Structures are given as structure tokens and as C-alpha cells.
């Protein structure tokens, strides 16, 4: 049990709202293995509708959603997925990809903020004749970037990458764990991003506030195979409608309030930048994440998070920086508490 008064470690720490708990208690359920759970089916239909895809499959985690999509697109063990090195699939999930599907990655450096360009992808997809060893089956993009600043991908860059992938005959998967944050920040509809990807996944947990669950979306045929892989990966839950009920509320009520999280993150980022000069560029805060460099305080990032923790403020160390993430359970007062904790940290 943590002792945080203000938990900024991640947007995965949110608790279900009273309305979600009520809906969960009252959810109509059935056995999802048989496709019988009406609440799961409603959530899947809603996800397909929002993303403009033919079908969706509700699964326990973002990792499982990504791994199902990767497996779907993958044709050969030892083949490669082109991705940015800090992306979740190529960093945190790299072992899952290797163990579950024999997948390896061909990473391209990007801009250091989680974004790769069409030129880089084009270069990575060039055939390596005469050896034919490096065969890429897939390009995997992430929007927003969870480990490189919560940054938003420009939809035009997305289109350019899709074009290059199409020319090479390679599919595109979008890790859209936080695609609704991207949409709230950019004003670009979720379906507009989705149309540039063959498959995408998004989480109803994280920013949207549901306790559990993600959706992998694609064509009807892909999702038929996706359901099969879900069972293969041990994800065939049964009366999952109790969770889908919270997911439906998250989808209805979550997206419209994300700008509040972004505004609080901006305020926190601007204050930390002022308190600790050189720790971050306030303009780098694009969505709900603040990444601060503890070196500007002469501290290791873990020392900084320990010292924040002593004051009841939870933060995590991601990509060598102190990461703080605003979410549905963070209030204006919580932001002030976190700012006061940084002031105390800087005062020594
Ligand atoms: C960008 C991104 N993709 C995928 C995931 C995996 O989601 P989960 O923790 O639900 O497995 C995360 C988790 O934080 C993430 O940040």
C-alpha cells in the first residue's frame, strides 16, 4: 500500500468512479468465450464505431492488445517490426513479443521525443538484397508516446508513414494506448488517426479512467483471428461485462475531460521549470505527462522520486527522467501539493 497523497506515477492508478462501480454491479453479463456477454459486445461495437474499424476485441491489458495485433500481422519468426526504440512494444514489451511470437525489432532513432519520420521508415523498409535476412512485416507507431514525453504525432507525418508502408506492402499497427489524449490535444478525430493504421489498440484504463481493459480494433477478418489469439494468449475471460460496463462509461465520459488533465500537466510543468531551471522545457508538455530532468538539481532521478515520496507525492522514473502524469483523480489542489513538493526539493 503506498502512502501517496498525490499519485502522479501514471494514469493507470485511477480508481473507478461511483457511476462505474454502479454500472459494474448492475452489468448484464454472459460468457465472453462464447461471444455471449452483451455488455462486452456493446463495448466492442462502440470501439469499432469510434475508431471507424469493422470490429474490436476487448482484452485485459494494453500489452495483450498490442501482442494480439503484432501476432496477427506477423508472418515469420525472426522477422522484424519497425518501431521507435522508446516505444512500449520495443522497450517494455520486447520480451513478450519475443516469447509469444518470435518477434524482433528494427528500431529507428526518431526525434528523441517518440516520433519517427516517413524517411526513416522508408530507409528501414528497404530490402536488404542480396541477403534477405532483414524482413520487416510491420511498422508499429505509438501516439501519444508514453516513455518519450506524452508527445502527439502529427497526422500528416502519420499519413506519410502509411504511404511509405503501403508502397513496401507492409502493414501499420498503432499503439494508441492514449490516442484519446492525442486527439484531445491535436483536435484530430480518433478515427482520422485510425484510418492510417491497419490495426490499432487503445486503453479504456489510463486516461479514460476505467479500472481495466483495452480494445484491439481492425477489420472483421482480423478481429476473428484476434479473438482466436486472445484465447491462445490466455485472455479468454468469461463474464467480462462487469469490466466492459466501466469501459463504456470511460468511453462516454473520459474523452471530454482530458483537456483538464493536459491543462494541469502544463501548469505543473511550467512551475517545475521555474523552480528548477534546466529541468524541462515547459513547451515539451503536450498532453498529460511531465518529464523533469533531476540532474538539473544535481540528483539521480530515483533520489528525486524518493524525496517527492517523502512528501506524499508519487512520481516514477521513466527514460532516465522523473515522470509525472495527471489523470482523472488529480485535482488542482493536488497540482499545488506537487509544486510545493518540488519547491521543498529545490530548497534542499
Ligand atoms: C504506450 C503504451 N502502450 C501499451 C501499454 C501497455 O498497457 P498495459 O499496462 O495495460 O498492459 C502502456 C502502458 O502503460 C503504454 O504506455
What would your notes on this structure say?
The two termini are 27 Å apart. The radius of gyration is 20 Å and the shape is globular. It has 13 helices and 12 strands. The mean pLDDT is 96. β5 (136-142), α6 and β6 form a beta-alpha-beta unit. α1 (18-26) runs antiparallel to α10 (241-253) and α3 packs across α9 (220-232). The strands form 3 sheets. Strands 2-8-7-6-5-3-4 form a 7-stranded mixed sheet, sandwiched between helices. A 3-stranded antiparallel sheet has the order 9-12-11. The protein has 348 residues and is α/β, with parallel strands linked by helices. Pyridoxal-5'-phosphate binds next to α3.
Radius of gyration, Cα only, in angstroms? Answer: 20 Å
Helix content: 40-55%
Describe the main β-sheet briefly.
7 strands, mixed
Shape: globular
User: Structural class from helices and strands?
Assistant: alpha/beta
Q: Quick one: how many beta strands?
A: 12
Mean of all residue-level pLDDT scores: 96
Strand order of the largest sheet: 2-8-7-6-5-3-4
Could you tell me how far the N terminus lies from the C terminus, measured between alpha carbons in angstroms? 27 Å
List low-pLDDT spans: none
| Quaternary structure annotation | single chain
Bound compounds, each kind once, are:
pyridoxal-5'-phosphate
Strand content: 5-15%
What order do the helices and strands follow? EHHEHEHEHEHEHHEEHHHEHEEEH
Q: Count of helical segments?
A: 13
